[in-house]
Amino acid sequence: MGRHTKTDKPIPHPTSWLTVLWQVEMLELGGRRYGQWLCQCKCGKTRKVPRMKIINGGIRSCGCMKKALMKEFAEVAAKVWAERRIQQEAANVQ
Question: Under a CB-based contact definition with an 8 Å cutoff, are residues 49 and 36 in contact?
Answer without folding.
Answer: yes
